[in-house]
Amino acid sequence: QTGYFTYDSGFAATAACTSDITFIDGQEGVLLYRGYPIEQLAENSNFMEVSYLLLNGELPTSQEYDDFTSLITRHTMVHEKIRSFMKGFQYDAHPMAMMMSVVGSFAAFYHNDTDVNNPKDRHLAAIRLIAKMPTVAAAVYKNYIGQPIMYPNNSLNFTERLLHMMYGVPAEPYEVNPVAAKALDLLFILHADHEQNASTSTVRLVGSTGANPYASIAGGIASLWGPAHGGANEAVLNMLDEIGDVSQIDKFIAKAKDKDDPFRLMGFGHRVYKNFDPRATIIRKATHDVLDALGIDDPRLELAMKLEDIALKDPYFVERKLYPNVDFYSGIIYKALNIPVQMFTVMFALARTVGWTAQWLEQHETADTRIGRPRQVYRGAKKRDFVARHKR
Ligand code: SDX
């Protein structure tokens, strides 16, 4: 469906692009990655297999899976100079500010093979980004807590490696908790791609100019950081802590409904889903399972469920079809894994790098290489002649 923009006629929705990767039916609450329902992938697959699927269009055979995971493993280290680059950050800089800068700096370190017209270079850039994001995320975390940056341990799998780099220290061995590794793997599957959301559209718009792949993904990280987008998972935790207990819920619901109050119920609502976000349903159940398995009793879970229950019975939310989205429960699991709130969106960016790179590759491998050029509905002054209003 195409649209057009003129002075008078308003505008019709214009599809941003064509894509074969992810399908969303917002009315029905359906999410498919390359045709596979997110519920089945969450139940039966793992993040590396889903990454291969998003990048290549089909699930991998055993050989393809082994080749892909060893290719990723081979690229987990970052250029040694990036470690000194990171030493320049204030220790308490927001982790997303550090991640955005470090990934953007890849364009200065991996600049010899970024010819976007060369399929080999494009594929290598995608593999480098997916493989190095856990190393960058862990380094950002270590910088934030003032501990030495850890090197990747390539004998571990993707999420085990991340946890080891985040919580391990050079002074002693670190045993990865399999419950934590599995929980992260599930969250990464659910956050991997989501059609043309704000950050993916940013990646495609930057990419459409032929810009360096690392610059395109750095643009996606910048866009994801906002509290209306990926930053919502951090905002949900802060909101739950501000609400404190169930007795305060009605007050915050009233604030969220008050047009004069900028407060919105974080983790609620979605531009596309006008039904349950299927990812939120999966994460709600996983949150119970993870807290039970780790023997953690986090009152935030009961508070979040009560908040959801009250909101879903409130006409304001019902009329506007506002349901919990992917960010509503994810922070409670991250908290259970001792991940600080400021790192929640870094986790989201780490997982979404797969979707961003898959969409960036698709853009360069299909006819969609025309430069993106959104139009507008012009509501300014009509054409008029110049008449100076001040005496020279
Ligand atoms: C993500 O696009 C994606 O796919 C994103 C994402 C992905 O995987 O990439 O799914 C990830 O970003 C999820 C969304 C995370 N953000 C939040 O949880 C922040 C809180 N949510 C809102 O800011 C809002 O719902 C948005 C930003 C998500 C959507 O904004 P829209 O499209 O402007 O919302 P809308 O058009 O559906 O709003 C309709 C009405 C409006 O009121 P009226 O003008 O009709 O009176 O609902 C109101 C809105 O003010 N509304 C809310 C609300 N969300 C919408 N009111 C209170 N609380 C909310 N959360």
TrEMBL record:
Keyword Mitochondrion: no
Top-rank lineage group of the source organism: Bacteria
Gene Ontology annotations of biological process type: tricarboxylic acid cycle
CC annotations in GO: cytoplasm
Active site positions, chain numbering: H270, D327
MF-aspect GO terms: citrate synthase activity
Gene3D superfamilies, alphabetized: 2.20.28.60, Citrate Synthase, domain 1, Cytochrome P450-Terp, domain 2
Pathway assigned to this chain's UniProt record: Carbohydrate metabolism; tricarboxylic acid cycle; isocitrate from oxaloacetate: step 1/2
Alphabetical keyword list: Transferase, Tricarboxylic acid cycle
Catalytic activity: oxaloacetate + acetyl-CoA + H2O = citrate + CoA + H(+)
Presence of the UniProt keyword Transferase in the record: yes
Protein family: Belongs to the citrate synthase family.
PANTHER family, per the entry: CITRATE SYNTHASE (PTHR42871)
Descriptive protein name: Citrate synthase
Name of the gene: gltA
